[in-house]
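Example (one chain per record):
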Amino acid sequence: MITDYLIHQITIEPPSTADAWGNVAAGAPVTVQARVESQRRLVLDAQGQQIYTDARVFVASAAAAACVPGSWITYQGDRRQVVSVVAQQGLEGVDHLVAYLGAGVSG
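Predicted structure:
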């Protein structure tokens, strides 16, 4: 089961509503267990374009509402935006999600 491997604690800030200029604010933060792996990868973004990502994060399927492209994930003070999410199927539906993260913002 994936939950045995979720050894890190992260904060997810899902995207909220856009303002009049199209800027999307972060929604209410949610803290969940995850597995964070830092490694550069070539993946497809939400528009199907190939992009490089700096990390991937595994989360339980219960975090699906918060972990979407455009969300912000903070781990050990490093804040990164989710650029792609892939649902991993298990025997009984979606088992977990893999979120691919873009460049970090320290702070």
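Caption: The two ends are 33 Å apart (CA to CA).
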